[in-house]
Design goal:
Blueprint lengths: L1 H13 L5 H24 L6 H21 L9
Helix pairs in contact: 1-2
């Protein structure tokens, strides 16, 4: 992801941000890294003991809360 981010930054400096190819490469890399994370994250409870499962469950609750809170509009935090 770091390599793709650096290349995308350099492409942006060169004026190629609106290129569909550059944007498609970023989307593919982000999707692949998200899939990699999910596969390894959901394989963890089967490879650990009860303490690890409790920690995994706590992390799952935090991840779900972060995803749900991400759907709130930014104005929900305005005063």
């Amino acid at each position: 992801m770091g390599t793709v981010a650096t290349l995308y930054f350099l492409a942006g400096l060169a004026g190629y941000v609106h290129s569909p190819f550059a944007n498609l490469v970023v989307v593919i890399v982000l999707a692949a890294s998200a899939l990699f994370f999910l596969v390894h994250f959901f394989a963890l409870p089967f490879a650990t003991n009860w303490v690890g499962r409790w920690i995994w469950a706590a992390l799952l609750v935090i991840l779900i809360a972060e995803v749900l809170l991400g759907f709130l509009p930014p104005t929900a935090r305005d005063e």
